[in-house]
TrEMBL record:
This is Replication-associated recombination protein A. GO terms for molecular function: ATP binding; ATP hydrolysis activity; DNA binding; enzyme activator activity; single-stranded DNA helicase activity. Gene3D superfamilies: 1.10.8.60, 1.20.272.10, DNA polymerase III clamp loader subunits, C-terminal domain, P-loop containing nucleotide triphosphate hydrolases. Residues 39-151 form the AAA+ ATPase domain. Keywords: ATP-binding, Nucleotide-binding. It comes from the Bacteria. It comes from Paenisporosarcina cavernae. One of its GO terms (biological process) is DNA synthesis involved in DNA repair. Belongs to the AAA ATPase family. RarA/MGS1/WRNIP1 subfamily.
Length: 430
């Protein structure tokens, strides 16, 4: 009989068997206590591949003792959903785990959602996409919990691997395996927080190892080969996907095009093209900004091309975008300005809008004292267009400065205009 993969066999059957994700489902969390007390809410589980979304759903089902059904939204049809609805009617209440929930179509929703709303079906949806961007609002509104799972820490992955090595019923415990602590940690680090990759690599290594006197001997050379073959990677510090994103951005910001290309290659190997594209767009405006404002549009074009092409061709426009950003002039002035303004508001710098800036497009505005706005276009100033000396900030904030130009690239011209206008403003105040 065909044996299921190790990663499948090692799925937890109860909450106390879940490794990692303590902030979401640890014993001290509200969700853990709710489930232990018999209440399972509908929820969305969001996170990268291998973080345990499916495993957590199975563990919740095991701890609740409710009938459990699993569907994949990319393959399930209306009939599959109707079958679950019929089971809910017969059994009173069931848990439905719906993988790839962001692909759930309207016909499926119309069949299922009333039963989720009345509580006969507890929906646990899983997605690698941001649920606030990609999951239908009708589904989202019926899920009381939205939980973002993170990649496992190296120590958690080590725990999972050791459990698989010693478990005699579901794992590899029936076979004597000679594997060192260093080799186990290497597998954990290489998996970059992906539990499925870690268990798959372990199973591959064990399957390929030679036996001597009834003991399987794990060789470093074999382990290295298999790590390369299945495309897992990492460093001695266990950096995972989000560390790679951070390293890419900091390398571009530091104008090191070689380092940036290295980290881009790592990220593209991970397969999460959407997250890479989002980060590149952020970088175009956060790190290049006003110094080279055209970069934003060119990076957007590269990202859209990558999404249309898919891998491996997507690497080409993205490489172009990364090289251009790494070697571009850079400014974070706009990014810092908005953060400074938001910080000012958070610290209580709220004041009334000057009357001449308030809306006057209604009867009675003048009676409230609104009006007196001077239209800048009516007072041309050189080749700039139009400007006048009226105040725009609230009176108590009139001396506030949030924007400080960076003298780089295209922003040099903007900086000169800014300084000139500041001079005019100071003269008008005298």
């Amino acid at each position: 009989m065909h044996q299921e993969p190790l990663a499948y066999r090692m799925r937890p059957t109860a909450l106390d068997e879940v490794v990692g994700q303590d902030a979401i489902i640890g014993p001290s969390t509200a969700l853990y206590k709710m489930i232990q007390h018999g209440h399972v809410p509908s929820m969305l589980l969001y996170g990268p591949p291998g973080t345990g979304k499916t495993s957590l759903a199975y563990a919740i089902a095991g701890s609740s003792n409710l009938p459990f059904y699993a569907l994949n939204a990319t393959r399930a049809g209306k009939k599959d959903v109707e079958t679950i609805v019929d089971e809910a009617r017969l059994q009173g209440k069931v848990i439905l785990f719906l993988d790839e929930i962001h692909r759930f179509n309207k016909l499926q929703q119309d069949t299922l959602l009333p039963h989720v709303e009345n509580g006969s079906i507890i929906l646990i949806g899983a997605t690698t996409e941001n649920p606030f961007h990609d999951v239908n609002p009708a589904i989202r509104s019926r899920c009381g919990e939205i939980k973002q799972l993170s990649r496992l820490e190296t120590k958690d992955t080590v725990t999972l691997l050791k459990r698989a090595l010693t478990d005699k019923s579901k794992g590899l415990g029936k076979q004597e395996i000679q594997i060192t602590e260093e080799q186990i940690e290497s597998i954990a680090i290489a998996a970059s927080g992906d539990a499925r990759k870690a268990l798959t690599l372990l199973e591959s290594v064990v399957s390929a190892s030679d036996e001597e006197n009834g003991v399987l001997l794990i060789e470093d050379s074999l382990l290295t080969q298999l790590m390369k073959r299945i495309g897992v990677f990492g460093d001695k510090n266990g950096s995972h996907f989000y560390n790679l994103l951070s390293a890419l951005q900091k390398s571009v910001r530091g104008s090191d095009v070689n380092a940036a290309m290295f980290y881009l290659a790592h990220l593209l190997e991970s397969g999460d093209l959407i997250a890479v594209n989002r980060r590149l767009l952020v970088m175009a405006y956060e790190d290049i900004g006003m110094a080279n404002p055209d970069v934003g549009q060119r990076v957007l074009a590269a990202v859209q091309s990558a999404e249309r092409l898919g891998m491996p061709e997507a690497r080409i426009p993205l490489a172009n975008a990364v090289v251009e950003m790494a070697l571009s002039e850079k400014s974070n002035s706009a990014y810092k300005a908005i953060d400074q303004a938001m910080r000012s508001i958070e610290e209580g710098s709220i004041a009334d809008i000057p009357n001449h800036l308030k809306d006057t497009h209604y009867a009675g505005a003048a009676a409230l004292g609104h009006g007196g706005y001077q239209y800048p276009h009516d007072t041309p100033i050189g080749t700039f267009g139009g400007w006048n000396a009226q105040s725009y900030l609230p009176d108590k904030l009139v001396k506030s400065t949030f924007y400080t130009p960076v003298l780089a690239g295209e922003e040099v011209k903007k900086a000169k205009i800014y300084e000139k206008l500041q001079t005019f403003r100071k003269q008008a105040e005298k």
